[in-house]
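Why should sequence recovery work at all? Because a backbone constrains its sequence more than one might expect. Tight turns favour small or flexible residues, buried strands favour hydrophobic ones, and helices have their own preferences. The token representation captures these environments compactly. In the example below, the structure is given first.
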């Protein structure tokens, strides 16, 4: 069977594009997975926000110590500190989650735009 050089060249180009797309998708998935694990790790938050971690730990300590000794002011202060710290960390968590979601969205690059112009679909 005689191979058509243009057809073979087109096949190689398609395989090259598919390989590049697979590598790009694989890299993005690994990056999102790493970022997701970091987002759920309490250690990452302690490293990134040591002040809030210290305030939260102090709030827990005050609330627990006041619970044993029945000191109302210390207990109130500890719970207030804990609530404020946890609310702020929750806002930071959701902000990072939105950023992760935005970062994982497919980016429009020159190859995707060119494929759209040529009538090649994505699905």
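From this structural description, the recovered sequence reads:
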């Amino acid at each position: 069977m005689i191979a058509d050089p243009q057809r073979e060249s087109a096949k190689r180009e398609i395989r090259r594009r598919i390989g590049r797309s697979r590598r790009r998708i694989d890299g993005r998935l690994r990056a999102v997975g790493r970022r997701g694990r970091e987002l759920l790790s309490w250690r990452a938050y302690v490293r990134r926000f040591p002040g809030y971690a210290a305030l939260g730990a102090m709030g827990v300590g005050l609330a627990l110590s006041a619970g044993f000794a029945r000191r109302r002011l210390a207990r109130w202060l500890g719970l207030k500190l804990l609530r404020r710290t946890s609310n702020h960390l929750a806002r930071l968590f959701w902000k990072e989650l939105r950023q992760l979601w935005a970062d994982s969205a497919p980016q429009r690059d020159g190859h995707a735009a060119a494929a759209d112009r040529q009538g090649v679909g994505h699905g």
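A few observations help interpret the result. The mean pLDDT is 77.
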